[in-house]
């Protein structure tokens, strides 16, 4: 996949999602993460969203941009619960242009009502058109 436009330092991309019980259950089946916090609702009827499921927010943005990730690093700061709206912001920190690709590094922040729940970064490449 090739990015629609050239990446540039300072580009910001945002995606928002609310995870459901079905999302947590399906991810648990695929990942094998079936801890009680992901399968048994709390007193408010919520499940805790798996950390790596929360990390699919920046991977969705990366996929939209055509990024082939080489490394990812995440710091999970607060639990995320089903029914909560989470906003993910990915900021391009650096772009190194090569003959056939762009090598990029991005910062990630995911928030719930202004509170940071996940920080991270990823590095990867984006193929130029025709490559």
From TrEMBL:
Pfam families documented for this protein: MaoC_dehydratas
InterPro entries, per the entry: HotDog_dom_sf (IPR029069), MaoC-like_dom (IPR002539), UPF0336/Enoyl-CoA_hydratase (IPR050965)
GO terms for biological process, alphabetical: fatty acid biosynthetic process
Start and end residues of each MaoC-like domain: 15-99
Signal peptide: none
Superkingdom of the source species: Archaea
GO MF, any single term: (3R)-hydroxyacyl-[acyl-carrier-protein] dehydratase activity
Protein name per Swiss-Prot or TrEMBL: MaoC domain-containing protein dehydratase
Organism: Halococcus thailandensis JCM 13552
